[in-house]
Amino acid sequence: MSLELWWGSGSPYSWRALLALEYKRLPYVSHQVQFAKQEHKSPQMLSMNPRGRVPVLKDGDYVCYESLAILHYLDRKYPDPPLFGRTPEEAGTITRVISEYEWYAEEHIQKLIYVILFQGIEERMEEIERAMSHVLSEAATIERRLAASDWLVGEHFSAADIVVFPGIQILLRALERREAHELRSRLLPIEARFPAIAAWIKRIEGLPGYERTYPPHWREQ
Ligand SMILES: N[C@@H](CCC(=O)N[C@@H](CS)C(=O)NCC(=O)O)C(=O)O
Q1: For atom 14 of ligand 1, which residue has the closest CA?
Q2: How far is the CA of 129 from the centre of ligand 1 (A)?
Q3: Domain range enclosing 41
Q4: Residue whose CA is closest, atom 1 of ligand 1?
Q5: Residue nearest to atom 18 of ligand 1 (CA)
Q6: Is residue 197's pLDDT more than 90?
Q7: What pTM, to 2 d.p., does this model score?
Q8: Percentages helix, strand, coil for the chain, rounded to the nearest 5?
């Protein structure tokens, strides 16, 4: 086995792949690409992923990109512990929760992050309000799930947790920015507003190997 992963610091999609590799305790060669140097657009990267995006996984001669495809590949190839459940019903529910997140939450989370980090909040209050109302409603759904169970689906950490966690972490980090002070109180402090999500974050942070998945540039700032 010779697994290699190309990933970028702070990329939620890369974080998914890292979490999956660590959870499965698979040894891998880690290649961090520097976005600022456009390393993800190098000829080598483009030959593996013509879209020039990370994560990219290589396993021997097989190359896989798109984070969800990487999770599926790893689970079929290295099934224990499973990411997509132990029964057909769990697999169905995990895939449903992922799909719900991607359809109803992700776009709005990304909107908030993008406005806070790159566009400026003042001129975009209407867009922000719209995105925030979707995020609050989806966060309430996630909170209800996690109030009933330690993990998003069933008794075990799964691909559903892996897909949702990085987006939430990146949003929480963006909300800490000075520019986001007016938005912050809508979601923070997370322990008070969404206690079950806060406890779930702590649970994931306690998983073996988690520290190796944490975006390295976040430690520096
Ligand atoms: N749908 C892809 C998204 C991958 C993606 O957009 N990665 C970003 C980093 S978060 C990237 O590589 N961006 C570089 C670019 O667009 O030039 C996945 O799930 O892997």
Answers
A1: 53
A2: 26
A3: 3-77
A4: 66
A5: 66
A6: yes
A7: 0.96
A8: 65, 10, 25
